[in-house]
UniProtKB/TrEMBL annotation:
Keyword terms: Membrane, Transmembrane, Transmembrane helix
Top-level taxon of origin: Bacteria
Protein name in the entry: Multidrug resistance efflux transporter family protein
Organism annotation: Robertmurraya beringensis
Transmembrane helix keyword on record: yes
InterPro entries assigned to the protein according to its UniProt record, in alphabetical order: EmrE
TM region positions: 31-50, 70-89, 95-116, 136-152, 158-177, 198-220, 232-249, 289-307
Length: 325
C-alpha cells in the first residue's frame, strides 16, 4: 500500500522534531520559540510552492468562504498539536515524547464516529456515521505494546512529575492532530490539494504562533542563533516535507477508516527513527533485548495493518462487482 510507505517516510522526517526539540531545550532554548519558529519558517516555503503550482487564488477563495472552521480546526490540528509537543520536550527526553506519541494511532481510530461517509441507496445518497474499525483498533493496541517495550528500559529512571509533564501534553496532541487533519479534509472536500491545505492551515494558525513568539520574546528575549538554525531544519523536515507527505497519504484514504487507521499507525515508526538518530548522533546506548523485541512488534504490527488494508480493499471490490452483476 503506497500510502503506508508515504506515512513511514513522513515519520522519518517527523523524527527530526523530537531529537532537535530536546536538543534546543537542553541548550537553553524556550519551547515558545521552538514551536512558533517552525510554523513561521514554513510560510515562505509553502507560499512559493503554492504560487508555483498556480493554486494560491483558489486556496484564498476556499478559506474566505469558510473562515471560522479554517481557523478553528487549524488551531486544533496545528497549535494544539505542536505547542504541547514542544512543551513536553522541556520536561522529558526525546525518546519519552516520541514513545508517547504513538497513542495517536489509537486516538485516530477512536475518532471515527465523529465523521460521516456518503452511502448510495435506492432512495439516493445519504450520510451515515463512520464506525470504529475493530480490527484496526486491535492492531493499533498491538503496536502500542511494542512501543511500551521499547520505552521500558528508560522508564526506570523517570520521576512521576517527569512522566506527567512530558506525557499528558503529548496525549492532548495525539488526539488533536488527527482530529484537525480529518476535519480539514472534510471541510475541503477534495477541492484543494495537499500543499494548499497545509499552507492554508499554516496561515490560519499563524496569529497564534505570532502570539506565542511575542510571549517568548517578553519572557526570555530573542531566540539564539542555534535555536533559529535548528527550528529552520525542523520547519523544512517536519513542517514542509513530513506534514505534506503525511497529509497526502491520509487524503488518499480519507473515505476508508481502516486504511486511514493504517496510515496513521505509521507514526509509531517515529520511535524507531528517534532511537536510531540518538544512537548515531548523540551516542546513546543501543536498545536492550526487550526494546529490540518491541521494535520487531512495531514492524510486525505495521505489516498487519498493511495486510488488513489490502484485504479490506479486495473485499470492497468483490462487493461492488456483486452489486453491479
Amino acid at each position: 500500500m503506497k500510502e503506508i510507505t508515504l506515512g513511514i517516510l513522513a515519520s522519518l522526517f517527523f523524527a527530526v522534531t523530537f531529537i532537535l526539540n530536546r536538543s534546543m531545550e537542553l541548550s537553553g532554548g524556550s519551547w515558545l520559540w521552538s514551536s512558533s519558529l517552525r510554523y513561521i519558517f514554513m510560510v515562505p516555503f509553502l507560499l512559493i510552492i503554492v504560487m508555483y503550482r498556480r493554486n494560491l487564488k483558489q486556496m484564498w477563495k476556499e478559506m474566505l468562504s469558510n473562515p471560522i472552521p479554517w481557523i478553528l480546526w487549524s488551531f486544533v490540528g496545528f497549535v494544539l498539536f505542536y505547542a504541547p509537543i514542544t512543551f513536553a520536550a522541556a520536561f522529558g527526553p526525546g525518546w519519552l515524547v516520541a514513545g508517547t506519541w504513538p497513542l495517536t494511532i489509537v486516538a485516530g481510530v477512536l475518532l471515527g464516529p465523529l465523521f460521516y461517509k456518503t452511502v448510495e441507496s435506492n432512495s439516493g445518497p445519504s450520510k451515515v456515521r463512520q464506525q470504529i474499525p475493530i480490527q484496526a483498533l486491535f492492531i493499533s493496541f498491538f503496536i502500542l505494546i511494542g512501543v511500551v517495550l521499547i520505552q521500558w528500559q528508560h522508564a526506570q529512571s523517570l520521576t512521576f512529575e517527569m512522566v506527567i509533564a512530558s506525557t499528558f501534553p503529548v496525549l492532548v496532541a495525539a488526539f488533536c492532530y488527527p482530529l484537525g487533519n480529518r476535519k480539514m479534509m472534510e471541510i475541503c472536500g477534495g477541492k484543494l490539494d495537499t500543499f494548499q491545505r497545509v499552507f492554508g492551515m499554516t496561515l490560519a494558525s499563524l496569529p497564534f504562533w505570532l502570539l506565542l513568539a511575542g510571549i517568548g520574546y517578553v519572557q526570555v528575549g530573542p531566540p539564539s542563533t542555534e535555536q533559529i538554525t535548528q527550528s529552520f531544519i525542523v520547519a523544512i523536515s517536519s513542517g514542509v516535507i513530513a506534514t505534506t507527505l503525511f497529509f497526502i497519504a491520509t487524503d488518499r484514504v480519507r473515505d476508508n477508516q481502516e486504511k486511514l487507521a493504517a496510515v496513521e499507525a505509521t507514526q509509531s515508526t517515529q520511535v524507531i527513527f528517534v532511537i536510531v538518530g540518538e544512537v548515531l548522533l548523540l551516542a546513546t546506548p543501543l536498545p536492550s533485548t526487550l526494546a529490540t523485541i518491541g521494535l520487531f512488534i512495531v514492524m510486525f504490527g505495521m505489516l498487519l495493518h498493511s495486510f488488513s488494508s489490502k484485504k479490506g480493499e479486495k473485499s470492497n471490490i468483490s462487493v461492488k462487482k456483486e452489486t453491479f452483476s
